[in-house]
Specification:
The protein is of the alpha+beta class. The chain is built from 10 helices and 10 strands.
C-alpha cells in the first residue's frame, strides 16, 4: 500500500472475572481486570478514492466481509465524520478467534486509531469511546489499552496504572467454547463481590502487587466450563504444576494462561505443554503502551 499506516492490535487477558448480576436486557454485569499482552494482530490501511476494501490473512473462523468488526469500524467512522474518501485495509491475524483473548475487539479499536491518523480526525477521547461502544463491549478497553478495571457489560473502564512486568504462557486448546452458552451455564449471581473490589483497591493503592492480585482472584466461568470441557482444567492444573504464580482461564475460554515473574520460567513451562495446543509466551504491556503502536 502507498502511504499506508500500520497499527498493532494486542490481545488481552482477563486477570479474573466475576459476575455481579443479570440486567433487565438479558446481559450480565461483570467485574474484571483486563491486561493487554504483546500477542498482536497487524492492521495496515491506506486511503483510496471511495469504498472499503478489506482483506484478511490467516483469518480462519473470522468474518471477511461487512460482518468483520474492522469493516464495521470503518463504516461507522467514515459515516460519523462525513468522509467521502475510502480506505483499503489488510489485516494479518495472529490472535486466534473465539478464545477469550479479544482479538476481534482489538482489531476494531486499531481500525479506529488508524483511521484517525490517516484522515487526521479530531474528537476527544470520550467521543471516540462512544464509537467503540457501538462496536462491542470490549472495544473501549482496547482503545485505551494497558490495564483496566472493567465493569458493566465491559463499557465502564477505570485505568489501573500498573507497570509491573509479568510473563504469561497462553495456551489455546483445540476446543471452542461459546460465550453465550457459558453465560447460560452460570448459576444465579449472588452479587457478593466485595472481596474482589477490596483487592482491586489494594492494587490501585500499591498495596498489592499484580502478581499477588493474579494469585488471589477467581474466574467465575472456570467451574462451569471445566465441568463440560475437562481438558481446559487439565491444562490449567499443568500450568500450576509448572510453577506458575497463578493459572486462570481468560474470559469464558477456551484459552488458559499461567503467570510468571521471569521470562525463562515462562519459556520452560511453555515447552512442557501439549503439542496440539497453540502456546505463546508473551509479556504484559505496561499501562497505555499499546496505544502508541
Amino acid at each position: 500500500m502507498v502511504s499506508s499506516i500500520v497499527v498493532r492490535a494486542p490481545a488481552k487477558l482477563n486477570l479474573g472475572l466475576s459476575i455481579v448480576g443479570r440486567r433487565a436486557d438479558g446481559y450480565h454485569d461483570l467485574i474484571s481486570v483486563f491486561h493487554a499482552v504483546d500477542w498482536q494482530d497487524t492492521l495496515e490501511i491506506a486511503e483510496i478514492p471511495s469504498g472499503i476494501e478489506f482483506t484478511c490473512s490467516s483469518c480462519d473462523g473470522v468474518p471477511r466481509g461487512p460482518q468483520n468488526l474492522v469493516f464495521r469500524a470503518f463504516e461507522l467512522a467514515l459515516k460519523r465524520f462525513g468522509i467521502t474518501r475510502g480506505v483499503a485495509a489488510r489485516l494479518q491475524k495472529e490472535i486466534p478467534a473465539g478464545a477469550g483473548l479479544g482479538g476481534g475487539s482489538s482489531d476494531a479499536a486499531a481500525a479506529l486509531r488508524a483511521l484517525r491518523r490517516l484522515f487526521n480526525l479530531k474528537g476527544d477521547d470520550d467521543s471516540w469511546l462512544l464509537l467503540c461502544q457501538q462496536l462491542g463491549s470490549d472495544v473501549p478497553f482496547f482503545w485505551r489499552g494497558g490495564t483496566a478495571l472493567v465493569e458493566g457489560r465491559g463499557e465502564r473502564l477505570t485505568p489501573l496504572p500498573v507497570d509491573e512486568k509479568l510473563w504469561f504462557v497462553v495456551v489455546v486448546p483445540p476446543i471452542h467454547v461459546s460465550t453465550a452458552w457459558a453465560y447460560g451455564q452460570l448459576p444465579r449471581p449472588s452479587g457478593g463481590n466485595q472481596d474482589y473490589r477490596n483487592r482491586i483497591q489494594r492494587l490501585r493503592a500499591g498495596e498489592l502487587s499484580l502478581a499477588d492480585f493474579c494469585r488471589e482472584i477467581p474466574n467465575d466461568f472456570e467451574r462451569v466450563v471445566e465441568a463440560v470441557f475437562p481438558r481446559i482444567g487439565e491444562i490449567r492444573r499443568a500450568l500450576e504444576a509448572s510453577g506458575a504464580i497463578s493459572a486462570r482461564m481468560s474470559g469464558s475460554g477456551s484459552s488458559v494462561f499461567g503467570v510468571y515473574s521471569e521470562q525463562q520460567e515462562a519459556q520452560r513451562a511453555a515447552a512442557l505443554l501439549p503439542a496440539d495446543c497453540l502456546v505463546r509466551c508473551v509479556q504484559g504491556m505496561p499501562s497505555s503502551s499499546d496505544r502508541k503502536l
